[in-house]
Design goal:
Blueprint: H1 4-28, H2 36-46, E1 51-52, H3 53-60, H4 64-76, E2 80-85, E3 88-96, H5 98-118, H6 124-142
Antiparallel strand pairs: 1-3, 2-3
Helix pairs in contact: 1-5, 3-4
Length: 143
Amino acid sequence: MNSKYDCFKITLLLKELYSKTMYSIEDNFEEESLTYQQIIVIKIIAHNDDLTISDLCKKMSLAKGTVSGIVTRLEQSGYLEKFKKETDKRNTYLKFTDKGKSFAFEFRSKIQKSFDNTFRNCNNEDLHDLKLNLENILSKIKE
């Protein structure tokens, strides 16, 4: 099954699965008017202290200009604040506002709702098998 067609078809199917999942996530966060990338920024900040914009660029594998735009919109929406440390004036750091902290706290249940919606017609065995197969393939790709 190593034909070019099969590999390409698998890639298209994974992209479609990814897209459907991301659209579901965006739908569940529609009232906050947040994009998927903004949601990911919030998630990353929630799990990392002393995060700089440069750190965020690396974690997201995006250019600084792209990440800066996402961060600026989150700052304008009241989720984040940018700040400089007295000991490090070169880097711009990110932290949550109260609104951002509140959102990050509610994030888990909303994201679970998105996943439940996306995979509502799949049973646990299907999802478990998919997970194992994807992990197996990823481990072989990394070798």
